Amino acid sequence: MMGMYFITFREARRLLLSKATGVNLDLRKTNRTWEIKREGDEFIFPDGTRVSKDVIERIARDEGSVYFVKDGGVYKAAIAGEHYYKLVPTIPPTIEINGIRMHRTKGVNPLQDTRNKVNAVRPKEGETVLDTCMGLGYTAIEASKRGAYVITIERDKNVIELAKINPWSRELFTGGKIQVIHGDAFEVVRKFRNESFDVIIHDPPRFSLAGQLYSEEFYRELFRVLKPGGRLFHYVGNPGKRYRRKDLQRGVMERLRRAGFVGVKRVEEALGVVARKAEKKR
Predict the structure, then answer these.
(1) What is the pLDDT of residues 239-278, one digit of tens each?
(2) Taking CA 116 as the corner, what is the angle to CA 110 and CA 138, rounded to the nearest 5 degrees?
(3) Is the omega angle on the peptide bond into residue 92 within 30 degrees of 0, that is, cis?
(4) What does R_g of the chain's alpha carbons equal in angstroms?
(5) Closest residue by Cα to residue 104 from 114, 169, 68
(6) DSSP string, 78-142
(7) Is beta strand 197-202 parallel, antiparallel or unpaired with respect to 272-276?
(8) What pTM, to 2 d.p., does this model score?
(9) For the packed helices 9-17 and 53-61, what is the interaxial angle rounded to 10 degrees?
């Protein structure tokens, strides 16, 4: 972890309420614990950073944020700009942008949510996967763990920065089997060669934020870069009321068929749609 230690309300409360000083400092990516010494009203982290009890008490009250200790200071894992981005201490963390979470967190954790999506297309050893919208990279990491080589695209540099902070996203930048491209998927996909990918996982932001990523024009590009026999999973989500979701899903399925995809069907547990590109006739 090299001098970056993470603390959420859970660890802060543990430090305040018990004499036990061994706490997890990597957002529960591992079961490892680190020793934190206490001197008076200060807590001393493994790199020597002294954090006052007041700061720990403030973190203990904040159930919606992740903090980290680095180079002698305590920082919130958040970026304020045109929008407000922060890591949320679900396990593993998700990102919240202007209060909207990027992963499903009700009744399912972000890791299970990711596995549901990846299981819909089951990447195999040696296959090449396109992950159109990286986020924290859990989809890309899960696909790479199954032996695939992954190209993942992320438009928002602030999301990439939070991924670089998040210990659960580390394999994006260290594994060697994942290539991260900073750019708009709508433009980037146009530059790929025909029939480049065995699998495409398309998990775009909600329709109101990224309508072009739900367009027939974009689906035709996805069809073009998919190999014959290749599989597509398209996350559609659960926006608003049931009838609206059905309308959005139905529209997605119709446009995918018009773009050339076959075998288009719903995958309820992953809140999305699967499709494939027909094999070439011999």
Answers:
(1) 544 545 557 889 999 999 999 999 999 998 888 999 999 9
(2) 45
(3) yes
(4) 21
(5) 114
(6) EEESSSEEEEE-SSS-EEEETTEESS--SSS-HHHHHHHHHHTT---TT-EEEES--TTSHHHHH
(7) unpaired
(8) 0.92
(9) 130
Provide the pairing of β-strand 226-235 with 197-202. Answer: parallel
Listed in order, the ranges of the chain carrying CATH 3.40.50.150 are 110-276
* Helix H or strand E segment including 174: helix 171-174
As a 3-state breakdown, the chain gives helix, strand, coil percent values, each rounded to 5, of 35, 30, 40
Q: Which amino acid is at 217?
A: E
Residue showing tokens 């210990």: 167
- Indicate the CATH number for domain 110-276: 3.40.50.150
Residue 146 C-alpha from the chain's centroid: 17
Residues in the chain: 282
